[in-house]
Each structure stands twice: as C-alpha cells, then as structure tokens.
Write a structure and sequence with these properties.
Layout: H1 10-23, H2 26-31, H3 36-57, H4 62-80, H5 87-99, H6 103-117, H7 126-148, H8 153-173, H9 175-180, H10 188-193, H11 201-206, H12 210-232, H13 241-260, H14 273-284
Amino acid sequence: MSVNETAPDPEALDHVRAITEAAQSSFFWAIRFMPRKRRDAMFAIYAFCREVDDIADGEQDPPLKMARLAEWRREIDQLYAGKPTLPTARALLGPVREFALAREDFIALIAGMEMDVQGTMRAPAMADLEAYCDRVAGAVGLLSIRVFGAAGPSAAAFAIALGRALQSTNILRDLDEDAVMGRCYLPREMLRAHGIMSSDPESILADAALPKVCDAFATYAEARFTDAQRELAGCPGRALRPAVVMMVVYRRLLERMRRAGWQPKRRPVGLSKPEKLWIAFRHGIL
C-alpha cells in the first residue's frame, strides 16, 4: 500500500453499501458493475448524498436541520484533515485521496440542501433553480466523473448538463411529493408565462395551466439531455458508461412522463428492475 492509499474501513464500507443497495435506485443499477474500488467510492458518495438529503427532507424544524447540515460541513473539514468520524465520511476517506475528490463539491451539495431547508425553492427564478441543480446534482456529477476516470472541460460540462437534466426530471416526477413539503421547483418565469402568479405549491398544482408549464419544463429538461449528449462526444466514453446508464434511464423516464401527461391524478411513472438491468448491461457493459 502506498503512502497515498488508505486502508479500507470494513464497518464504514458495509454502512455505505447497505444505504445504496437498500435504495435500489437508478444510481445503484448504473454503478453495480463497476470495478470494486470505484464501486465502493460511488457507494460512499451516494450514501453522503442520501444522508444530507434525508436531513433536508426530514420532519425536524428548520433550525435543527440547519444545525445538522452545519455538522456535516464540519465533518467534511474533518474528512479533508484526514480525521473523519462518521461512518460515511470514513468510507469517503480512501476515495477522496485516490480520486482527488474536490472538497467544494461536497460543500456545494450541502449548500443545495440548505436552500431546501431555508424554504427558497417555491417557484424560484430560473437562475436560482439552475444554481440549485448544479449544487444538488451537478456537484455529484463532478465527484462521480473523477471516480469514473474522466477529466477535462468536456467531462465537467457533461456532468453539469446531465445534472440539470436529471434534477429537472426528478422535479417533474415529484411534483406532488414536493408540494407536501411546501416546495415547487418549477421556474417562476415559466409559471408566469402561462398565467400562474402564485408561488404556493398547492395553488400551482391546482391551476389548469399546470400541464402547459410542465410541458415547457420537460422541453427544458430534454434540451439539457441534448447538451449532455453533445459534451459526451468529447469525453472518454468508456469511462463514463455509468453516467450514460443514468442518462438513458432518466431520458426514458422523462419520455414516459410526457406521454402520460400532467393532469391529476398523476400516477407514478418508472422503469421496471428488468428494464434497468437491461439498460445497465446494454450501456454499462456491452
């Protein structure tokens, strides 16, 4: 073992693997076939994302949520000092050193969660929405491409464009769930262009013009997928296969939601496990 390597922490690795496998998300299907060291790094990144997201979406009062996110900011400082204490941060120690993961990307994700807790994501301006997407999804993409072995301006631009595409798809998928938490991420400019002046999530969802807004936002998401596809042409495609799996899964999900329409009652739209597995094989291995 070189001086730059860190001995695996079995307890920490078990912790992050359990979180990722329990989620059975598209992320899991995209990374499950990666080499062990890279896969374990992605498990740790996913677990970090899951834990800070659970804080933001939990039932605690905002001041306590902000305090817990501040604890994670301090834990990231501890991580980069080589002295993490939490299981997920301990699992990140090796990947941070081996793949040169950037501290600012972890901090960006925490900042995105703070935007949720502060209640600013209620019909945000497009510029604020894109900043949010870059924090909660683009930053994860930037961490991920380092683990995948891709670097350079095209890879970074791909990560940001894909992050915006994936998060926009999530926004359309989770309209009703987000409204329960007092959030609506649809951009203010699109809402007003279709006559919706309210920023109240329930009022927005009840407005007859909502389907037109959703169609407009779906077009925006499709354009970001196109941006990502264009940037991919300048990247090492083999290294980015896990990201391509995510792109294919989410693009297909967006297409299905658009076909299903946006009228209430909106039913969950998703891909089956066999379909995700096929996409993982088709775009991740073959």
